[in-house]
Amino acid sequence: MIVNEWCMYCGECAAVCPRSLIEVRENSLIFNEGCKECRICLKVCPVQALEKEEDSELS
Ligand code: SF4
Ligand code: SF4
């Protein structure tokens, strides 16, 4: 998962991850191992700050 500069560390993605894999720090997001690639976090982000690594490689 890639976090772009639009992220405002609101924590919404962390709140919805069914596996609680996302940790919000002051100026960073930590993605822990075990992502099921459900993409819920991408969909809830109000500013589209999350991208899947493979998606950005394709574009
Ligand atoms: S929901 Fe989006 S803006 Fe909020 S912490 Fe997650 S990536 Fe950043
Ligand atoms: S894709 Fe799903 S499992 Fe992976 S970090 Fe986002 S919400 Fe969590």
Structure commentary:
The protein has a single domain (2-58), classed as 2-Layer Sandwich (Alpha-Beta Plaits). The longest helix has 6 residues, at 53-58. A hairpin with a 4-residue loop joins strand 2 (22-24) and strand 3 (29-31). It has 3 helices and 4 strands. The chain is globular, with a radius of gyration of 11 Å. By secondary structure, it is an alpha+beta fold. The structure holds iron/sulfur cluster (2 copies). One iron/sulfur cluster (SF4) binds at residues 3, 7-13, 24, 29, 45, 47, 49-50.
Structural shape: globular
Number of domains as seen in the coordinates:
1
Helix content: 25-40%
CATH-derived architecture: 2-Layer Sandwich
Low confidence ranges: none
Major sheet: order of its strands? 1-4
CATH topology: the name is Alpha-Beta Plaits
Q: Give the overall average pLDDT.
A: 92
Key features?
Alpha-Beta Plaits; 4 strands; 17% strand; 59 residues; binds iron/sulfur cluster; two-stranded antiparallel sheet; alpha+beta; globular
Summarize the structure.
The chain has three helices and four strands, in the order βαββαβα.
Q: Which secondary structure elements does this structure contain, and how are they paired or packed?
A:
Elements lengths: L1 E2 L8 H5 L5 E3 L4 E3 L8 H5 L5 E2 L1 H6 L1
Antiparallel strand pairs: 1-4, 2-3
The chain binds iron/sulfur cluster (2 copies).
